[in-house]
Amino acid sequence: MPIKIPNNLPATNVLESENVFVMYDNRAYTQDIRPLKILLLNLMPTKIVTETQLLRLLGNTPLQVDIDFMYTATYEPTNTSPEHLIKFYETFNDVKSRRYDGMIITGAPVEQIPFEQVAYWDELCAIMEWSKTHVFSTLHICWGAQAGLYYHYGIPKYDLPQKMFGVFPHKRLCPKHDKLFRGFDDIFYVPHSRHTEIRRSDIEKVSQLCILSESSISGIGTVADMNNRRFFITGHSEYDPFTLKTEYDRDVAQGLPIQIPYNYYPNDDPSETPVVLWRGAANLLFSNWLNYYVYQETPFDLSKL
Which GO CC terms are listed, alphabetically (predicted)? Predict the structure, then answer.
């Protein structure tokens, strides 16, 4: 949230040069305030787990947020009870007449399937097209980021020789110009769990895109469009402390080829309790998105989107 200061305070220039968000008296007194309307398109099979992870982060700000949940009508989830979906979720047909301050498109365990062969691909394309006129800012996560970059900009994904799995150090590439990472350390950590990647060389061909963060190990971290209306995040900052452990134990039990998650267990020993390195950065990421790119930018009257 901003610091409200008197007009023409001498400290203003210093604070703004340090990327501290300040608001003058005259703007603060004329602000209209209402709850933010956020749409969560949950593509994960374990919907309740994903809901909890994201709501925990979205709720960790002083902003009031109203959440609508959506799933794809063209694919019937098998890991979430129909009762839960009926009670809490809507489909695209239910929400398409509404407008939203922000939307989150989650990842999905379909990354090794060509986009066009995903069961709900046509519906997802319709939702992403609709978002251009009905959503102010959209946050795409993991496979959702790959799908968004492919749909909006034609950027392909590539299979990896082995799963990108663990907690990887990232660095900001434009700290003086990127409010999404305001308050972050020079090096911050993000969990990844994916079999495919996007590549810098493809993103650099698209003038409308900017790479905001990157890891020397896991590659591209965050991409944004030049209008800061779409953000594409390749990792899972929302993950709980034991999410990677659950995935690792599941794959081991099924006899699948899986390496120990990178930089996760002390001494790479799965019998040890995992160390959480990403919680602070995760909370800042979602707070900054809500504050700087949703709350501060969306028109008070959503019909003016």
Answer: cytoplasm
